[in-house]
Amino acid sequence: MIIWDDSMATGVPEIDGQHIELIERYNAFAETLNTHQFMTLEAGELLDFLQFYAVWHFEREEECFDKYECPIAAANKEAHAEFIHKFGHFYEQWQTQGMNPELMRQTFAELGIWIANHIRRIDTELYPCYATHARQ
Ligand SMILES: [Fe+2]
Ligand SMILES: [Fe+2]
User: Fold this and answer.
1) Fewest 10 Å CB contacts: which of 12, 96, 110, 130?
2) Is the whole-model pTM more than 0.70?
3) Domain CATH for 41
4) pLDDT by residue for the chain (136 residues), tens digit each?
5) Within the chain, where are the H helices?
6) How many structural domains comprise the chain?
7) Ligand 1: distance of its center to the CA of 77 in Å?
8) In this structure, what are the phi and psi dihedrals at residue 44, rounded to the nearest 5 degrees?
């Protein structure tokens, strides 16, 4: 279970809202992991959501990084491309071979790492850039 707090804030309400939604999905999946043994349906739904999320969230966030002239905009974009590659591969595996416990475990673990590392370390770099623009 991951709880959103100020250490993940970007200051942009729309972006923070989208991060909160991702964390809620992650937590909902974590809960089913504790209650069932093999949740192929939930794991598929999570992979489905992540495909949608990549388009819905990354485009909007990259626009903000450019608009607020954040110096690590390129690194953010690169990390997003890696996410798309990684979770796109998981999605394809699910579509072609079906869900299995290892794929489910990998999806869950990688998403947890993404939230802890990417949102906390990269996305939060938006905070001072946005704050500077908001003051002008
Ligand atoms: Fe990002
Ligand atoms: Fe993000």
Assistant:
1) 96
2) yes
3) 1.20.120.50
4) 999 999 999 999 999 999 999 999 999 999 887 776 667 888 999 999 999 999 899 999 999 999 999 999 999 999 999 999 999 999 999 999 999 889 999 999 999 999 999 999 999 999 999 999 888 7
5) 13-35, 40-67, 73-97, 101-114, 120-121, 126-135
6) 1
7) 7
8) -65, -40
Tokens of 26: 């992650």
Ligand closest to CA 62: 1
- Is 5 inside a domain boundary? no
Ligand 2 centroid, distance to 119 Cα (angstroms): 6
Structure tokens at 64: 């903000």
Distance 15 CA to ligand 2 centre (A): 7
What's the CA-to-centroid distance between 58 and ligand 2, angstroms? Answer: 6
Distance 37 CA to ligand 2 centre (A): 30
36 C-alpha to center of ligand 1: Å? 31
CA of 130 to the centre of ligand 2 (A): 14
Task: Tell me if 26 is assigned to some domain.
Answer: yes
Q: What's the rounded Cα separation, in Å, for the pair 95 and 45?
A: 12
